[in-house]
């Protein structure tokens, strides 16, 4: 291990010279070949796993301080989901990184062999968002390490306690010649983005996504952009409404609605809308009791800026459940809005908070047209028993993921790629898709000399 700084915290000034030296140092390590052997990758992944298991309580405390995240959610969504990914890499590393033979079927190449080979890209930069500040940081970091890269790790500054904790822990567990942590916000990230990386993996909003991609373009650096958007939910009249309400409330209001794949709004027919409103009130009460502000299970808005943004959206439609706010506590009650019109403020931007508008449509045709008239969402959800409806939604709409029956769960299935399309992002990761994202798939052809 070198003596060079492995973590820049908010107490440090982080200059262009620091960034250059840091990236050069990691690139020098990469060039020695140290990160390529599967043994090194395994060791780093195991260390990352140890970090999570050794510090479970401290991580949960930091998440609670940042987001009032409850312990069960911190364990399940942040820590265990990340461990599932790491274990998947550990189990499948040989298989997923093995060269793949390719048949040589073209004429004129007798005796030739061909393969594709996964080459690590070099030095990756991972920039994370604050809403799941452990998972959204460490899952891509694990993918980059599993693929044999060096990594610069930029935690999300709004989740300040978690960022500080990870900046302390990561250098204590990982190889500091091949990884480094830089804490900070736009200025520090801007300084990092002046550097040439071999891959940039960004999670956050589309405005910054454009800044990242513009910076990457100068060096022809490939990017993955994990962005957001308004993920719609179609509720068919044949669906069991009590089940729909339970599953909608359980996913929409987790983390106080601050989830990139949270159901954003509901499209359904007028009769089902009325039934659903009543059922949602019951489901919310079952989750958080009579007063969600006193419930341990309910989170808080990350900061006052987001609280103010969300409060301004509460004027849309008619509030049928919730609506209470407390700025000093950055608390917004789980809220359901009915009779919402498409031109109202709550429908103009991704909500990213605990407000669920219900809009009515006449039928599936109108729902599909509504979805297709807007940006391609990160996820599309539908509650229906009807196979034709499922087939039509799959064939006639475009979204990062499509999920029937239980919102958000597709991201916890590591055999599925996770990512957006259009305004919701580009590229994907999880499981073997992370290895592909952080590798170059090199074509190798071997033609005999005689
Ligand atoms: P954020 O404010 O934490 O920003 C994300 C990252 O961008 C941070 O690390 C931050 O330091 C950096 N950043 C901010 N301004 C910058 C600038 N000017 N230049 C360079 N870097 C800058 O998070 P956010 O954007 O508020 O996150 C919310 C959005 O992210 C939502 O749209 C949500 O849907 C999306 N999101 C997507 C996913 C996904 O996996 N697809 C996951 C979580 C969040």
UniProtKB/TrEMBL annotation:
Tell me the Pfam families matching this sequence.
Answer: Aldedh
Task: Write down the InterPro entries for this protein, in alphabetical order.
Answer: Ald_DH/histidinol_DH, Ald_DH_C, Ald_DH_CS_CYS, Ald_DH_CS_GLU, Ald_DH_N, Aldehyde_DH_dom, Aldehyde_DH_NAD(P)
UniProt keywords (A-Z) are: Oxidoreductase
Source superkingdom: Bacteria
Q: Which residues form the Aldehyde dehydrogenase domain?
A: 15-444
Q: Which residues form the active site?
A: 226
**Entry's Gene3D superfamilies?**
Aldehyde Dehydrogenase, Chain A, domain 1, Aldehyde Dehydrogenase, Chain A, domain 2
PANTHER family, from UniProt?
A: ALDEHYDE DEHYDROGENASE (PTHR43570), ALDEHYDE DEHYDROGENASE TYPE III, ISOFORM Q (PTHR43570:SF16)
Say which family it is in.
Belongs to the aldehyde dehydrogenase family.
Q: What is this protein called?
A: Aldehyde dehydrogenase
The top of its lineage is:
Bacteria, Bacillati, Actinomycetota, Actinomycetes, Kitasatosporales
């Amino acid at each position: 291990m070198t003596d060079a700084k492995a973590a820049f915290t908010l107490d440090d000034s982080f200059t262009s010279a620091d960034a250059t030296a840091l990236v050069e140092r990691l690139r020098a390590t990469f060039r020695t070949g140290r990160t390529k052997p599967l043994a090194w990758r395994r060791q780093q992944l195991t260390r990352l796993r140890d970090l999570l298991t050794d510090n479970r309580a401290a991580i949960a405390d930091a998440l609670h301080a940042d987001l009032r995240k409850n312990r069960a959610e911190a364990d399940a969504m942040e820590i265990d989901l990340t461990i599932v990914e790491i274990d998947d890499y550990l189990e499948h590393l040989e298989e997923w990184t093995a060269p793949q033979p390719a048949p040589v079927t073209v004429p004129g190449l007798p005796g030739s062999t061909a393969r594709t080979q996964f080459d690590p890209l070099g030095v990756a930069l991972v920039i994370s968002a604050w809403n799941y500040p452990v998972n959204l940081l460490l899952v891509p970091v694990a993918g980059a390490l599993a693929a044999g890269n060096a990594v610069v790790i930029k935690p999300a500054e709004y989740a300040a306690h978690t960022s500080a904790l990870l900046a302390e822990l990561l250098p204590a567990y990982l190889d500091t010649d091949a990884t480094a942590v830089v804490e900070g916000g736009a200025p520090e990230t801007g300084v990092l983005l002046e550097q040439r990386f071999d891959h940039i993996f960004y999670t956050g909003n589309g405005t910054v996504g454009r800044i990242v991609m513009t910076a990457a373009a100068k060096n022809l650096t490939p990017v993955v952009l994990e962005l957001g958007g308004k993920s719609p939910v179609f509720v068919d009249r044949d669906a069991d409404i009590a089940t729909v309400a339970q599953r909608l409330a359980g996913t929409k209001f987790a983390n106080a609605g601050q989830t990139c794949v949270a159901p954003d709004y509901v499209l359904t027919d007028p009769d089902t809308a009325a039934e659903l409103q009543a059922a949602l009130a019951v489901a919310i009460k079952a989750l958080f009791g009579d007063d969600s502000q006193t419930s341990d299970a309910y989170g808080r808005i990350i900061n006052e800026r987001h609280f103010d943004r969300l409060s301004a959206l509460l004027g849309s439609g008619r509030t049928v459940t919730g609506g209470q706010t407390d700025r000093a506590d950055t608390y917004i009650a789980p809220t359901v809005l009915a009779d919402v019109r498409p031109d109202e403020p709550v429908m103009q931007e991704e909500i990213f908070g605990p407000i669920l508008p219900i809009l009515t449509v006449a039928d599936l045709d109108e729902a599909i047209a509504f979805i297709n008239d807007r940006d391609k969402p990160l996820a599309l959800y539908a509650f229906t028993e009807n196979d034709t409806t499922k087939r039509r939604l799959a064939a006639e709409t475009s979204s990062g993921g499509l999920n029937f029956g239980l919102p958000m769960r597709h991201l916890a299935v590591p055999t599925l790629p996770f990512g957006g399309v259009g305004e919701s992002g580009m590229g994907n990761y999880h499981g073997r898709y992370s290895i592909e994202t952080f590798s170059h798939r090199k074509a190798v052809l071997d033609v005999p000399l005689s």
